[in-house]
Design a protein that fits this description.
Chain A is mainly α. Helices cover 69% and strands 2% of the residues of chain A. Helix content of chain B is 47%, strand content 12%. The chains are: A mainly alpha, B alpha+beta.
Chain lengths: 421, 177
């Protein structure tokens, strides 16, 4: 059965997008930060958050293939729908990075080339930056030894190579998986089994790429905002946030589709297991978040503690509510079996955690890039969020109309239909 | 008439589920099922109530958390105040991040051990307890439905046996007890 986008859903998603766009315009006009830094940072928050959701869905999809999991086969198309947003998310990321390279904003302090040279000859815009004390050279006041030491990794050509490589690999795999999945609907017997095995191998290959790229992309796009600071856990923590947001999106989407009368074969056990994923990955996130915080708090050394000091001093409510919402809420409310089988409850709690993770991305990006111009969640943040949410939902729902909502011939389909826990 | 116990042996869990379904729909009460591994979806068929082990585990977990907090407050704050990472704050709420790993570990320890021991006591399978399965083959590749005539006054052993014969049963054993 194919999903058809109802006029109501279409007008709600597009309406959210337009409402968000209007609020964003008002917010950008009220943004008096240097180079509209605040607007760019907000674009990065939402661009990255929704890109992360579709990437999380792609990861989970590949994980199910690589582990040959049967029960999610019925839900395959939902994950395909979520990762269909990947190219749009990638365009937003590229626009933000390109604007950074063109010095339209200074989210990435390290993109300033003057930081890397110890000496300069001449003054002002005419100045020439050199590494050695040549004739007539004076000390460069902009020189930053810490950043200069990172030059082997943090330089624009390598940064762009990495960014394009991540996006190319992700989108390439996403398109390939989607094509294969549609192909499987038309096949049976020997050729179908062969294709499933091929998908199994390719998914494992994707996971190898993803294991490296999910960490490095978090360093490149998010952690490098606070250029002087680094945390080896940061990549996993960002990845856990992406993953849980994707799991929430998937379960809410499935419940919406079920309510509209689609996916009749999805039963309570599927819903409970999807709820379990939200619960489990929330714990993964909490574990990583706390591990990062505790080690930095315990050792208390200046170059590390500044990251949390700034956030705790300037945005205590936001920082603690992120941890409370994303840890305590799922722990207390999603622990029991009945909670995970109650659609309304699951949607309610899921929405709260979803917003919690969006706030978390705000806390990652805003203090380091906007600093004192960031006064908590305002019109700009909410507008940008609604705009992206509308766009994301519209893209995903639209992608769901393109193919039958459940796969037709998958070898594990029967097992998935009879999933019972 | 002496009470009888009937053991219907199956070779496949799905066939066993079909057999159990047939018995229950004819009003026969199934005493128990023995299988080498947990059979999904069997519990609602033979009318086994949902386990309360999860609730027990939660209690043990909460107990572990409380004990750990209590212990650590006594050891590290009250009895011998510790200087945590150069922060001699000596207050539980200020030092709590340093204690979380211990509290977490102790919670898991209590929940896991409590759950395992409860499970073994409840099933009478503590080390050294006599085995209760009627047929050693249920630990290998056979699945057995146990029906007692004492539970089924409306049915004679013969009608139950003939009912079982209509299902793909591997063998039927009867025993007096």
């Amino acid at each position: 059965m194919n999903f058809t986008l109802s006029n109501r859903a279409r007008s709600i998603t597009l309406g959210t997008m337009i409402l968000g766009a209007l609020a964003t315009v008002a917010g950008v006009m009220g943004d008096h930060s240097d180079h509209h830094q605040h607007s760019w940072a907000s674009l990065l928050v939402n661009g990255f958050f929704f890109f992360g959701i579709s990437l999380g869905a792609l990861f989970f999809f590949a994980l199910q293939n690589a582990t040959e999991t049967a029960w999610t086969v019925l839900l395959k198309r939902v994950y395909e729908g979520i990762y269909s947003y990947l190219p749009i998310g990638a365009v937003v990321i590229v626009v933000i990075m390109a604007a950074g390279s063109l010095h339209m904003h200074h989210l990435y302090h390290w993109m300033d080339h003057t930081l890397y040279h110890e000496y300069m000859v001449g003054e002002g815009h005419e100045a020439e930056y050199v590494d050695e004390a040549v004739q007539g050279a004076v000390a460069n006041p902009n020189y930053d030894a810490l950043i200069a030491n990172k030059k082997a990794y943090l330089n624009q050509p390598f940064f762009w190579l990495r960014t394009l490589l991540y996006l190319g690999v992700f989108i390439g795999f996403a398109r390939w998986f989607r094509k294969q999945s549609l192909q499987m609907d038309t096949e049976t017997g020997e050729s179908l089994v062969k294709r499933v095995l091929l998908n199994y191998r390719r998914s494992a290959l994707f996971l190898v790429f993803f294991a490296v790229f999910s960490s490095t992309l978090a360093w490149d796009w998010i952690m490098s905002i606070d250029t002087h600071w680094f945390s080896t856990l940061f990549g996993w923590y960002t990845f856990a946030g992406m993953w849980v947001s994707a799991m929430i999106t998937a379960v809410i989407l499935v419940l919406y589709l079920k309510r509209k009368g689609y996916l009749p074969q999805v039963n309570n056990s599927h819903i409970q297991d999807m709820g379990k994923w939200v619960f489990a990955v929330s714990f993964l996130w909490s574990y990583l978040y706390f591990s990062q915080f505790m080690l930095i708090w315990y050792s208390n050394i200046p170059e590390e503690i500044t990251y949390f000091q700034q956030r705790i001093n300037e945005h205590p409510v936001l920082l603690w509510s992120v941890f409370f919402i994303n840890f305590a809420v799922p722990m207390v409310l999603l622990m029991s079996r009945d909670a995970k089988r109650n659609p309304r409850f699951l949607i309610g709690v899921g929405t709260v955690i979803f917003i919690g993770h969006w706030l978390d991305v705000n806390m990652m990006v805003m203090p380091g890039s906007v600093g004192h111009d960031f006064h908590g969640i305002g019109l700009l943040e909410i507008g940008m969020f609604l705009m992206f949410l509308g766009l994301f939902l519209y893209t995903v729902l639209n992608a769901l109309t393109k193919a039958p909502l459940t796969v037709v011939n998958h070898p594990y389909l029967e097992e998935s239909v009879h999933h019972q826990i | 008439m002496a009470n009888k116990v009937i053991y219907a042996v199956y070779e496949d869990p799905e066939q066993l589920k079909d057999g159990a379904r047939k018995l229950v729909s004819s009003g026969v009460k199934v005493k128990d099922v023995y299988s080498p591994f947990p059979v999904h979806g069997l519990d609602p068929i033979i009318g086994i109530k949902r386990t309360r082990l999860g609730i027990a585990a939660f209690m043990y977990g909460i107990g572990g958390t409380s004990l750990a907090v209590l212990g650590i407050t006594y050891f590290m704050i009250w009895d011998w105040p510790m200087n945590i990472g150069g922060k001699p704050s000596q207050a539980l709420y200020k030092n709590i991040p340093a204690f979380i790993p211990v509290i977490f570990e102790f919670t898991v320890l209590c929940a896991a051990h409590g759950m395992a021991i409860t499970y073994m006591i409840r099933n009478k399978t503590l080390p050294g307890m006599p085995a209760r399965n009627p047929d050693p083959r249920t630990t290998d590749d056979k699945f057995i439905i146990e029906v007692r005539t004492a539970d089924n006054h409306g049915h004679s052993a013969e009608t139950i046996t003939s009912l079982l014969r209509t299902t793909p049963v591997f063998e039927i054993n009867e025993r007096q007890y």
